Q: What sequence folds into this?
């Protein structure tokens, strides 16, 4: 006897197995390699090697338009961030992707220094 709930249970089970299958059973990477804001793009001349998995091809397609963060890639692909980090690591190691740390935000300048510069300019140039 079957119920209407069985297809839903099969779908949920498939989603639980999928990340394990995509990463070939590998565990999450050290967070120091790729953070959520690490920027990734495709190399201008990617290598011509063996065929890639569909998930890796999707990542290359996304990254071909310019820099995307790991979080953005995970959002577009609807894959867990840990899985995206593993796939990006593989593609970077194979020479398909280039990653760089995000540009740090500017440091705030001390207001007192700015006021002294302004006062000096006003005293010199009126």
A:
């Amino acid at each position: 006897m079957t119920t209407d709930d069985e297809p839903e249970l099969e779908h949920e089970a498939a989603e639980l197995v999928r990340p394990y299958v995509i990463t070939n059973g590998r565990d999450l990477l050290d967070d120091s390699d790729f953070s959520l804001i690490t920027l990734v793009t495709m190399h201008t001349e990617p290598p011509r090697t063996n065929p890639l998995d569909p998930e890796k091809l999707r990542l290359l397609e996304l990254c071909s338009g310019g820099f995307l963060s790991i979080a953005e890639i995970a959002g577009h692909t609807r894959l867990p961030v840990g899985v995206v980090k593993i796939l990006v690591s593989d593609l970077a190691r194979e020479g398909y992707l280039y990653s760089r740390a995000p540009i740090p935000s500017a440091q705030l300048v001390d207001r007192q220094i700015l006021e002294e510069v302004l006062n000096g300019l006003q005293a010199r140039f009126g």
About this structure: Helices lie at 5-22, 54-63, 70-77, 81-93, 111-125.
